[in-house]
Amino acid sequence: MSVISMAQARAHLRDPDDDDDYLQLLIEAAEHSAVNYLNRLVYADAQSMADAVAAGMAGEQPMLSNAPFKSACLLILGHLYANREDVVTGTIATELPRGSQALLTPYRVGWGV
């Protein structure tokens, strides 16, 4: 279950006219990117997390979605939406600070070696 609704995505992107299938793809990609960074599964509500725990599918440290997680997903979504190509030519590019990482880092587990 997605934590970002289509209405939230459209409001964040300020573009109510784009294709629903494309926007859903970007929403899912943004959420998967955030979950991968955290190294843990994130659930939209307590019931879905409880169901996953009962089924043994929740992982070691499941987490409920919260405002920082949703905000990070929206930042990632905005980046994916605005940058639809891997390479931009004819412009000067500057990397923006990764606000999404700042929002997600306190919840990250399993940093590794």
TrEMBL record:
Organism (species): Pseudomonas rhizosphaerae
Gene3D superfamilies in the cross-refs: Phage gp6-like head-tail connector protein
Record's protein name: Phage gp6-like head-tail connector protein
InterPro entries: Phage_gp6-like_head-tail, Phage_HK97_gp6-like
CDD domains named among the record's database cross-references: gp6 (cd08054)
